[in-house]
Amino acid sequence: MKKIIFLLLSSILTLFLFSEDLKPENILEKVDSITNAPKDQKIFMTITLVDRSGEKSVRKIIMFQKGKDKRVGKFIYPSDKKGIGFLSLPPNVMHIYLPAYKKIKNITSQSKNGSFSGTDFTYEDMEMTTFSKDYTCKMLSQNDSFYNLEVVPKKEKNSFYEKLILSVDKKYFIPTRIQFYEKGKNTKVLERESIERVKDYYIAKVMVMKNLQTGHQTIMTYDSIFFDTNLPDDIFTDRFLKE
Question: Where is the Uncharacterized protein TP-0789 domain (predicted)?
Fold first, then answer.
């Protein structure tokens, strides 16, 4: 009798686990829902550039995000970078402001693979992305802690990347590791570390982008972050970039 009960419970548990198994598309939807949960964000961030020899240079930036498709950032340190800014808007709009020239420049799709102000992040990397909308996906593998997905950008994404490999944390549904592929080669790796709860949201407070070709890396560290402060729409304009 005990054996029958054990087998019955095992069958029920197996059925439950199977029903909880997520399809790749569902995983990306959950990733997007976690990423886009805040109505808006105000972030003070330190950016540390580290070259192959270990020499470092430090910059500071303030960024604002609203919803799932608006982002603006301005450098506030050092003095030679102060005022340089970028604006990302839908659909696929990217502007940068160079105070030395007092000029706003449109970043075209053909130039979005350029370095964002000398960092290992490209202009494309700085755009807001909705994985479930902008990429097709398939499951590569999974273990107790991670889903490993291959995601391929759709044509309308106008991406310079051939594909990305995401390692999605099963507890937080945050991609803690992203491998970037260009022309068949893994050229960069982004690692997200120090996941913490801030207000009602979980965020990775440290991001490390490693260029596998040059040995250079860029570390972005959240100094402080504020959620749901009702940011006005006029922040996400060229006029704000110039201020």
Answer: 67-242
Q: What is the CATH classification number for the domain harbouring 216?
A: 2.50.20.10
Do the domain assignments include residue 146? yes
pLDDT of residue 20: 56
Q: How many domains does the chain have?
A: 1
Give the amino acid at 71: R
Q: What is the pLDDT of residues 212-228, one digit of tens each?
A: 999 999 999 999 999 99
Please state, in angstroms and rounded to a whole number, the distance separating the CA atoms of residues 13 and 140: 25
Range of the structural domain that residue 165 is part of? 22-242
Q: What DSSP character marks residue 115?
A: B
pTM of the predicted model, to two decimals?
0.88
In a domain, 219, yes or no: yes
- Residue 137's pLDDT is 97
